[in-house]
Write a structure and sequence with these properties.
mainly alpha, two-stranded antiparallel ribbon, two-stranded parallel sheet
Amino acid sequence: MQGFWTAFLGWMTRDPIWWAAFQAGAFFFMVGLVLVLVLLPWWLARVERARWRPMRRMLAFAALQAHRDCGENVVALSRQFFRENEGAPLERLTRARRAIEAQQAGGARFGRVMSAYAPAVDARHAALLADTAALVELTERTLTGLARLYLGQATVRVGANAVHGDDALGYAPAQLVSLSYVAEMEALADGFVEVAGDHRGRLERALGRRARKVARDELDRIGADVAMLGADVRRFCARLQPADAGDVAYKMRARGERGARSLDALIARFDRG
């Protein structure tokens, strides 16, 4: 066998011109093989990314819109319940309900966008969309939870003549509330602020440098609004007087009119029209 290969190599190299042509052909064959095995998959991957890039950009913008809606709706509810508000109870309750309904509608809209652009989702955008869906769900739970807590302990009085200020919805200075009430309210606000901050970081990475630069001012504004939720709730809770649930003073506290405490039920009570 060794003699065969020696004879074959001798036959191959006996003509220098033919051997040079053979080497050149082998070189170009290897170059073509590299192009097929390495560069062609790379090129196809680039073409595939370019094909789905507009839809992936729309997914990122949908996540940005959901992030914006979550911040605006939480701030809208916080403005009615936890900031200094002298508005009529019916107006405040109606605006709070609108914030919850807007969040529900925004969550449904984001779900439709995800369904429409599902074929374009890659690993990076899948993580972003999962985080966005979690933020949307958390925001709705935060809104409904804060409304439930606020209305559960608020003083509610529906007078016969709202023109003379008989209607009341709110908290007296140093009103007695349970320790768990304050803890639950602060935990809801802090949890939302933390998750929204994490979502902003992933959103910025998915937007890309140019889109991130354009949206930076808006993201800063949304971040400031979201951070205000925690500040609003803590300032509100600081005006209250937490007490143990078994405390005699807490059990005997003035609780105002006790009735239905849902937003819809209270709106119906205050609405005389």
